[in-house]
């Protein structure tokens, strides 16, 4: 028996997608909407047997998919993008129901970006993935990117489909087959995407979805001997577990992990811009890995910055994410809501002062947490060093450039950093010293797929984007040809 719930008027299967067909699980779990904590679907709870079936389907499909031409693969990726664009409204409303992010963001930015991810890697495969041949004592060297095999993709809940397609698109473009394990809190758009890919003509078994819990389906997938690549976005502890599971099979891994990014504001900065960038860090209810949650402001302008920030943040509207006027929706899950509140309570008990928010939004109830700004936390304290992943920012001051760099680099993370200054030479100088995979200067969240993306320190291993993605999802090979006879 298959389960086909209707979510916000859109039919969505709760079953796995394996080998081009729906496969029901022996167990189930309930998917709950964070908007009002009501059940929306019963989802198949994947087992090791389901993972075995999906990996076998992917291995079987790899034999033919890996031999298709670049042009054929690119054409199918464009067809998938077409399908995403046709069903953009369905994807947007289902994902908002499932993870509580703003519907207007899904419509205008997130789901269009899903289609863009496929078009980008399709075009890169055909037009850009190349290395010129080179000569070694008359011998011709030729570099090629060979498909690696079955890719296990384990993806997060904060932007479920968009972040998954950062991985799915290059993996398929490279000629690999995929088994996706979406986050159990937000499984629905992965299921919808399977239907879109099949309708676009993607051969059976090339893309598979196994729903379920990380400790069950996820653990079986990353330890499977039939997998040749593992890509994961999520927490550091889970990455350590995955790395240990991958080690016996010597499977290459790519990890995009946590962050505790700084936003550094110098006295010569445009303060209106700095405040706008700071308030933007509450986007998606603070559930953004790249968010610059540590506001570091030069002492001489901190009073003015704080006053402008509080005035600007007071205008944020929290409420139902389906409402076009809402700026902040709910946290994704009761467990996440309680985790955030625990961080804030402990920080306040340790001496931090809430300048804004500081607790749940009791007027809305449920999973809504007020946008929060904490000041006065001691250096090295939990709230300044651990990832909260909620609408919680901290405010610190620095004396000079050297002090700013010291504070910015004072965590074990290094995912991103944002720098606001009117001095071009300072921008170059400071950005070169910040430990981060991405540094934004007088801007935020400008993400081009041609650029490398990833983290330093405990924020990750590897880079995604452009040829960097193909370097991971392929076995890069060099073929050396001897000179022709007579040459």
């Amino acid at each position: 028996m298959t389960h086909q719930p209707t979510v916000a008027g859109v039919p969505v299967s709760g079953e796995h997608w394996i080998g081009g067909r729906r496969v029901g699980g022996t167990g189930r779990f309930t998917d709950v909407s964070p908007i009002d904590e009501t059940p929306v679907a019963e989802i198949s709870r994947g087992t090791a047997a389901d993972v075995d079936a999906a990996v076998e389907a992917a291995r079987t499909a790899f034999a033919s998919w890996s031999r298709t031409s670049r042009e054929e693969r690119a054409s199918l990726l464009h067809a998938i993008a077409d399908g995403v664009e046709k069903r953009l409204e369905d994807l947007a409303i289902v994902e908002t129901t499932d993870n509580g992010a703003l519907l207007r963001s899904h419509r205008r930015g997130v789901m269009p970006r899903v289609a863009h991810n496929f078009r980008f890697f399709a075009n890169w495969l055909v037009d850009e993935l190349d290395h010129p041949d080179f000569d070694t004592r008359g011998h011709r060297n030729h570099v090629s990117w060979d498909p690696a095999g079955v890719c296990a993709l384990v993806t997060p809940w904060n932007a479920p489909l968009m972040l998954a397609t950062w991985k799915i698109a290059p993996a398929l473009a490279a000629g690999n087959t995929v088994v996706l394990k979406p986050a159990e809190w937000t499984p629905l758009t992965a299921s919808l995407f399977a239907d879109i890919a099949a309708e676009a003509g993607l051969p059976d078994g090339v893309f598979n979805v196994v729903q379920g819990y990380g400790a069950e389906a996820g653990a079986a997938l990353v330890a499977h001997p039939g997998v040749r690549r593992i890509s994961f976005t999520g927490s550091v502890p889970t990455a350590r577990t995955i790395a240990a599971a991958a080690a016996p099979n010597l499977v290459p891994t790519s990890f995009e992990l946590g962050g505790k990014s700084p936003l550094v504001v110098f006295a010569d900065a445009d303060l209106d811009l700095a405040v706008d960038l700071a308030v933007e860090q509450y986007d998606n209810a603070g559930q953004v890995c790249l968010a610059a949650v540590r506001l570091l402001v030069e002492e001489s302008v901190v009073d003015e910055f704080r006053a402008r920030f509080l005035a600007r943040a007071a205008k944020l509207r929290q409420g139902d994410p389906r409402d076009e006027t809402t700026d902040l929706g709910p946290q994704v899950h009761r467990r996440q809501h309680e985790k955030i509140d625990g961080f804030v309570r402990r920080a306040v008990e340790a001496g931090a002062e809430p300048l804004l928010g500081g607790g749940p939004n009791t007027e809305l109830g449920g999973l809504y947490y007020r946008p929060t700004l904490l000041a006065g936390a001691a250096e090295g304290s939990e709230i300044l060093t651990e990832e909260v992943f909620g609408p919680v920012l901290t405010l610190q001051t620095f004396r000079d450039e050297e002090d700013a760099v010291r504070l910015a680099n004072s965590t074990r993370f290094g995912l991103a950093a944002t720098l606001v200054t009117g001095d071009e030479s300072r921008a170059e100088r400071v950005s070169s010293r910040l430990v981060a995979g991405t540094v934004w200067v007088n801007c935020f969240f400008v993400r081009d797929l041609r650029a490398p993306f990833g983290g330093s320190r405990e924020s990750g291993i590897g880079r995604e984007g452009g040829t960097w993605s193909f370097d991971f999802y392929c076995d890069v090979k060099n073929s050396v040809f001897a000179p022709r006879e007579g040459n």
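The chain has a mean pLDDT of 96. The domain at 262-441 is CATH 3.40.309.10 (Aldehyde Dehydrogenase; Chain A, domain 2).
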